[in-house]
Design brief:
The chain has about 140 residues and is mostly helical. The protein has 8 helices and 2 strands. It starts with a helix and ends with a helix.
């Protein structure tokens, strides 16, 4: 269903489940949880450049080092990779829950509401990194000019 799988009528949900509210506090909670669970690979700004990812890439390129037979798949850039930015929030939630390719799922570690909060925060990150001037309310734009 919507809350537990991110699906509505057989397609990915494009909105939060009705029992959850998109508030500043909810998105802030998503940021906190994202920073704990996701940033180590995806980076704080979602660029796929987290510390674990950076270290793995260093190990891969260090042919003289002790771990030159390891494999690593670069973490996705969540804000600029078009295979991610086009995904509805329900699909992001599902990926956080069950994983994808080499990414493990977090269903057992992160409560359902927090997984939705993370998905919402990722959508906010995407919007912030790909914002256009017309995304800013007219009254605010006037102050910036």
């Amino acid at each position: 269903g919507h809350l537990d799988a991110g699906v509505v009528n057989g397609t990915w949900a494009t909105v939060l489940p009705p029992q959850l509210a998109s508030t500043y506090e909810f998105i802030e909670r998503g940021q906190q949880r994202y920073n704990i669970y996701c940033s180590v690979c995806h980076g704080y700004a979602g660029g796929g450049d987290g510390t674990v990812n950076q270290r793995a890439m260093e190990l891969l390129t260090n042919v003289n080092g002790p771990v030159n037979c390891t494999t690593w798949v670069q973490a996705k850039n969540l804000v600029h990779d078009e295979t991610v930015t086009v995904q509805p929030i329900g699909q992001l939630f599902n990926t956080i829950s069950h994983g994808i390719r080499n990414m493990a799922g977090y269903e057992s570690q992160i409560p359902v509401q927090d997984r939705w909060a993370i998905a919402m925060y990722v959508k906010a990150l995407q919007r912030s990194q790909n914002a256009r001037s017309d995304d800013v309310p007219a009254a605010m734009r006037a102050k910036l000019d």
